[in-house]
Write a structure and sequence with these properties.
alpha/beta, binds the ligand O=C(NC/C=C/[C@H]1O[C@@H](n2cnc(C(F)(F)F)c2)[C@H](O)[C@@H]1O)c1cc([N+](=O)[O-])cc(O)c1O, binds magnesium ion
Length: 214
């Protein structure tokens, strides 16, 4: 049977990355995507911006929407303090299965809770199911037409507090125009664009960092 791209990416990690070494997992995936097959990971250039936001914030509770193969999950979790937790949501069971193995290869399974299902179902259950009060950081990298509705849902569910940071991938390419208009024009957010490039390409893309003002 034919392998899938995520399976080939996992194979590259298992063959080339050092177990328990998140940086080598990240480097291996970037090499694979640059020289073998493009994949929709946030990548190394935007990944450095992600790293700087995480390091500056030093968050205790992080939500990631869109695990895919776990590349950004590994980047974020490798920067978290010991008792911090990252909950990452993935809709596709096959992607989730690959991501679990990549997160485990990096040795980060104790910091990461990978939850399978739809954001619309899980966001309203975060408090009761996982004992979450509010998220310090949310990384949005899932379906682009879900960024805005899920942000509104997080607001409604009281999952954001004064100072919570939303960091959104792909606000230029593929683009999230309704989300961008909302966070840039709402009095409840301070928004800032970090210009970069679409992963592994020369096309423009960037991350939007939006601080919830309460
Ligand atoms: O489409 C893109 N990303 C979509 C990413 C989608 C991923 O998010 C998961 N998801 C869906 N709902 C949830 C949740 F959380 F709701 F449960 C999680 C999907 O199963 C998939 O793994 C994309 C495309 C390009 N590109 O260049 O085309 C570049 C990028 O960086 C991209 O992120
Ligand atoms: Mg993306």
């Amino acid at each position: 049977t034919q392998s899938t791209r995520p399976q080939r990416l996992l194979g590259a990690v298992q063959q080339n990355a050092t177990r328990g070494d998140p940086r080598s997992v990240v480097k291996t995936i970037d090499q694979f995507c640059k020289h073998k097959e493009w994949a929709m990971n946030v990548g190394d250039e935007k990944g450095c911006i992600l790293d700087s936001v995480v390091s500056e914030l030093n968050p205790a509770t992080v939500l990631e929407l869109g695990t895919y193969c776990g590349y950004s999950t590994v980047r974020i979790a490798s920067l978290l303090p010991p008792h911090a937790r990252l909950i990452t949501l993935e809709f596709n069971p096959h992607f989730a299965a690959v991501a679990r193995q990549i997160i485990a290869w990096a040795g980060l399974q104790d910091k990461v809770l990978l939850v399978e299902g739809a954001s619309g179902d899980w966001i309203p259950k975060m408090k009761e199911q996982f004992g979450v009060k509010t998220f310090d950081l949310v990384f949005l990298d899932h379906w682009k037409d879900r960024y805005l509705p899920d942000t509104k849902l997080m607001e409604e569910c009281g999952l954001l507090r004064k100072g919570s940071v939303l960091l959104a991938d792909n606000v230029v390419c593929p683009g999230t125009p309704d989300y961008l208009q909302y966070v840039r024009n709402s009095p409840r957010y301070n928004s800032q664009y970090f210009r970069s490039h679409l992963e592994y390409t020369k096309a423009e893309d960037g991350l939007e960092k939006s601080v919830f003002l309460g």
